[in-house]
Amino acid sequence: MEIDLSQFSQVFFEESLEGLESMESELLKLDIAAPDPEAINTIFRAAHSIKGGSATFGFTQVANYTHLLETLLDEIRDGRREMTSHHQDILLLSVDLLRNMLDAVMHQQTFDDPMLSELEQKFAAELNQANSPEQTPNEPETPELITWQITFKAGTDILRYGNDPLLMFNELNLCGKLRVKLVPQEIPDFTQYDPEACYLTWSLTLTTDQPLSRLKEAFEWVEDECEIDYQAHTQESATPPAEAEAPSEPVSQTDTPNKAASPVKPSVVSNKNQDAGSIRVSIEKIDLLINMVGELVITQAMLGQIGQQEEMTPESFITMKQGLEQLASHTRDLQESVMQIRMLPISFAFNRFPRLVRDIGQQLGKKVELILKGEDTELDKTVMEKIVDPMVHLVRNSLDHGLETPEVRRQKGKPETGTLTLNAFHQGGNIIIEIIDDGAGLNTQKILDKARAKGLVGSDEELSEEAIHQLIFKPGFSTAETVSDLSGRGVGMDVVLRNIHELNGTIELKSTQDKGSRFTIRLPLTLAILDGQLVRIGRHTYVVPLVAIHESLEVPTAHINRLSEEHEVVRLRDEYLPVLKVYEAFNHEADAKQIKDGLVMVVDANNDKVGLLVDELLSQQQVVIKSLEDNYSKVPGISGATILGDGTVALIIDIAGLVGLAGINSTQEHAA
After folding, report:
1. Is position 70 annotated as part of the catalytic site?
2. Of 64, 170, 173, 397, which one is the catalytic site residue?
3. CA geometry: angle at 136 spanning 134 and 138, to 5°?
């Protein structure tokens, strides 16, 4: 019986990646001087599971490499080898390597990273070096050959689970010289015979120099369901049992020695699983969904009965009204329950930073304590995936530019170890993510001087401290004196800003020199639903993200200044804001073609304020976002579309894209 294992491969990849995260987390927390045995066991179990699963699916390269990890970890947990910082380093590098190997397998690509060979050599050198050498020059270098007599009685369900005994024998054959004989035994009669069951027993004779633990690896995935007996005979002892000389069952040979064979038929990932996202959902959330659907079915049945009545009575109208109210309530509850399915704790994103902080801290010679708060705070899986890169930029920036070296911190009267804090919490309908360090803070004068040198700020122009700090988000801006792998290329912070705005989010910066910096990211909980303000421009309805709106107002003529034929600004309290006439950008006919005749909506655009001229404010409501790019094509100034309650389509304005389309620059450049 041949089993297609590709249908299970996605689960293997998910569990393997989770196992690698567990390995990395435990390795980073490990106290090398006194390693926790349970932590070592956790790391070992993760490697063991990845090895077994990869062998099962025929991913031999992954299985062979994880076998090296497993061997080293097994010696450490058994006390045959002491854990060292070198072991920690190569195991952490192995986590990175295995992630890349699994990614290559998922996409059916050949993996040829030279790091694989380099780490294999490091493991080989480590495993060939005894922890406490006791061998004397007079001891023989060639291990003693032992003949093992192995009786293998297969469990009746072994074939159902996709395990092929022949492939296990192939792996044994790699250990030495193997002969196999089928042991006669009674088979059930025809009426009781199960064609998918296995009723066979084999007698195996193996001459090898390998230890018993190596032999047991061939059967480790079936040992609980099979009966296996091992009897050893040295070469000097009596001749092995006679059945060893009997005609053997053929065992296929392999062209590559010392490579573990797969215990089942190799199976590649099917195309339907490539790049397929998935998410694990708790039973409680599923049960809640089922209950919600049940309530909807009941309400639908009630309304259906009313619809079947030939005449509507006053009582029927009352019942229908109640049913519609229930339908609205159940729909809201169902929407919230469905959205909860996509919600994951932000610990999934936070967990990658301990490793990043450790590696960069070592590279820069800085002592850093990473503090994680609010790890149980939940947000949409899609938002989490897209916010990781901006967070990585900000963390690297804090480590490189923010936190000082131990010597500098001592001179400033600070502890040698700097603190970097990642914090997350809910606030209203948003999630707040903070990246806080107690480092040097921003050097306001240095930033201003650099900006003036680049022509971003006029030589006589005066800016507030907050406005100066915002300059670090300008494309190509950097205060680094030298270019390194971490910084100085003038890219990074502008990318952070752009990516956060693409998520309909905002970022704030507060910094005090020699005290530290705090970056605060505000994001919607999900990208599937948007809290929006509906506006009218002529006969068209648009949606503006509510999170980006500061205020809307009528502007008197006295507060309107014209800078050029195309650009006007309005004075709002103590600042001047450029105004974008949306009807011109989208080529519409509008009621209000002049600022004094319409409403100016003040919104965030690339951390500056811009006014949008609209005809009328309509209602505020949650809208379900539909991708234009997927269903039509990318439209400049538009981030998506939604269907309103009356069935009409409303476009969602991409404020940053619209500002770029209109050619409006920063507020400071338009100041009067």
Report:
1. yes
2. 397
3. 155
* pLDDT tens figures, 367-385: 999 999 999 998 888 888 8
Per-residue model confidence as pLDDT tens digits over 125-164: 888 775 444 444 444 455 678 899 999 999 888 887 767 7
Active site includes 48?
yes
Convert the pLDDT of each residue in 201-260 to its tens digit. Answer: 999 999 988 888 888 888 877 887 889 999 987 654 444 444 433 333 434 333 333 333
CA angle 608, 514, 434 (to 5 degrees): 50
Question: What does the mean pLDDT of the chain come to?
Answer: 82
What are the angstrom distances between the C-alpha of 611 and each of 245, 250, 291, 424, 529?
92, 81, 46, 31, 24
Question: Identity (one letter) of the amino acid at 409?
Answer: R
From the list 21, 24, 26, 70, the catalytic residue is 70
Strands (E), 43-183: 146-153, 176-183
What tokens were used for 167? 């492939």
Give 397's contacts (C-beta < 8 A, 6+ positions apart).
Answer: 487, 492, 493
Check 48, 330, 393, 469 and give the catalytic one: 48
Residue 88, SS3? helix
Q: Which amino acid is at 4?
A: D
In the numeric block, the tokens 């704030």 are attached to: 508
Q: Angle at which helices 60-77 and 85-106 pack, to 10 degrees? A: 160
pTM of the model: 0.61
3-state secondary structure of 235: coil
| Residue found under tokens 């991913």 | 59
280: Cα separation from own chain's centroid: 13
Judge whether 245 counts as a catalytic residue.
no
Exposure string (b/e) for 420-437, b if CB count within 10 Å is 16 or more? bbbbbeeeeebbbbbbbb
Take residue 398 and report the two structure tokens written for it: 């804090």
